[in-house]
Amino acid sequence: MAEELKVIVFTLAHEEYGIEVDKVRTIERMVPITRVPKTPAFVKGVINLRGIVIPVIDLRGRFGLAETEITENSRIIIVAANDLEVGFIVDSANDVMDVMSDAIENPPEVLGGIKAKYISGVAKIGDSRLLILLNLVEVLSRNEIIQLEQFGE
Amino acid sequence: MEMNQYMSIFIDESNDHLQSLNENMLRLEQQPEDIGIVQIIFRSAHTLKGMSATMGFEDLAALTHEMENVLDLVRNSKLSMNGQIFDTLFKCLDALEAMVQDIINGGTGKGDVADLVERLKAIVKGDVNGSGVVKATVPAAGLSASLVLDQYQLSILSQSLESGHNAYYIEVKVREDCLLKAARAYMVFDVLERNGEVVKAYPSVQEIEQEQFDRSFSVYYITQAEEGLLRDQISRVSEIESAILNAVDRASLEELGRSQGEAEKAVEAAIKESAATVAISTPPPVSLVSAADSNATRPAATNAGNAAPRTIRVDIERLDSLMNLFSELLIDRVRLEQLASEVRRNDLTETVEHMARVSADLQNIVLKLRMVPVESVFNRFPRMVRDLAKSLDKKVDLVIVGAETELDRTVIDEIGDPLVHLIRNAVDHGIESITERVKLGKPEVGTVHLRAFHSGNHVFIEIEEDGKGINRPKVLETAIKRGVITDEEAKNLTDDEVNMLIFAAGFSTADKVSDISGRGVGLDVVKSKISSLGGHVAVHSTLGAGTKFSIQLPLTLSIIAAMLIKLGSEKYAFPLSSIVETGSVKRSEIRTLHGNRIIDYRQSIIPVVSLAALVQSPDYRDDEEAETEMLVVRKGDKLAAILVDEFIGQSEIVLKPLGKYLAGSLDVVSGATILGDGQVALIVDPNALIK
Fold this sequence. Notes:
The complex is a heterodimer of chains A (153) and B (691). Chain A is mainly β.
């Protein structure tokens, strides 16, 4: 029996991505971000989310895609995983979708230029839509931040 | 019975009692003759026993029970305290503490107490290393506490002994399957009455007649008959299992007289104890003196009401959430103040000003709620120093001053370990051995002073001993050997700088490694811990006269006064506590020395740090300006000038963590705060600016 999975759908460089709904705290419009010095370029800084200071990263930068200007549609998705709370800047976020677990396939090696380890699967929706499901544990892994810091030094 | 709801009370109370046990044991060790202290200890142990038994922690109860037995002998002057007993009792306290700790951590509170219980039992039996400390043991006849003679009965016994009668203590046991106990007992009494006189019976004759006894009863008996004859006659009564006759002589009679007095004292103590127990709503266990039971309850009711508590216990989480809510309010207040100054309406401004005053008072109270006397950390040290001194064969006095000084709870939680380190260090490395001290003409007993006091926005904790002091050449030699500094550097160091070397990682001057300190991992940990709390540590030492460690700590870690500054489009906050002065400096006054930028500041030369360069400011560079604002900050006795763009002003800010994701990757920034306009500003760690 296939299970139903609720995901938040967002776009990044014209691709559609999904994050399981229970990992998402809120979705916010862009707010002023305070830059934090000596962090990797994709760490945009910190924001004030109703009294709590939360780090924000640009998901394009995180995946090695070209970063673009912030637009009207840009959103910050606050996710919570690995005991961390982090905001993701995405191009737009506007949908919640049910995905059947039997429609999810293992990711191909490279997808839209993103390393496979950041992806937990690809869901086929209808005939032509593909939804890339993120592996949050890897995306939020701090190992790369630490490596980047060492590289920077 | 559902116990969970009592668990936290049990834990709190047991900790209190353990603490009081520890403290009073230490006091008793100083004044072993003071029976008043023994009484206090006894009461604590007794309450603890009752509580643990009620909660079902049997090992705890068993151990405290045995301790109580020993203490009981002591307070009745049957046993005098000696080193052996102290050590055993302290070991018991350790075991109790371990068990309570286990309970706190969700364990079952089980512990292997058999060994300790045995040792305590041996003490009670008077078997203290065969030294026979016990002044008098209970007569071998095993006179039970249940059979207490009053003065009148005692005098009858002694008079009849004088007139040549025999006195016996007789214990009669009826058979288990005996159907008519009262009848059999009556027959025994009949035999006895025919030959002599029963002075006292337990249970009382009436009770025996009404069959209100278990299987045995005992009597004091005066007779002229032979012991053998008596025994023979009693055992002829059927269904009697045994009759034990013990002759009572003059010596044991005196003993009885004494235990008589004790029994009264015990009743008194039991009354007080039950008063204490009533107050914490744990029913007292069956009292130690059965005769006291009926009397104990009545006065307890009258005693219980006299000490209404002035404090309440509050869950720490509630305080934390109160603090968080208040921080939110503070942020809104700053925002309101800003809005009011923009709107410029008098009544609005007045209201906001009033609110600001109220919230300032509120802030004081909220912060005070979180303040805890440093006593809660200090109170474990007397015991620690005692044990240490003992194991090192030294004599050390610990003098604590200012234990009532209050510190934020967060600081209190963290400061314990560093202090333990420093005190161990003082006793182990600082204070000399007794022979050495005598040779140097110093008093045999070394002194360690532990002081805490307020000064400005800081709390100082000092640890000072009158030991050997820091040996400069030895420190330098080790530092060079360990590669902490080079030969060249060593020559130019001041005494205080040399002293600070002992805080360097991997440094230890102890010639031999002891299990107390001297692994060389201690002091650098101490230093980093203290700096992580926003404080710092300094050392002053005089060779041969002693060393003083002085720790400076911030009063609180959650709300601080800060100077807000602007750097192009960005805002940063500096903790006010580290700022010495604000001012401005002309481009031309900044000189270069060995590639480092410096300025003259009040007859000394201090380094210049560009904040813009340090944080890689995207839109501000200080080298484009002819005159720059500067902050002079201090770390210990080092100063540095920080170049900034513009001062915004002083403000109370609420410290917020930056989030785990960024934790550990920052050195310049120590945290964040939310400004009145809702934006996040980063807090600069001045300690990171001064190398």
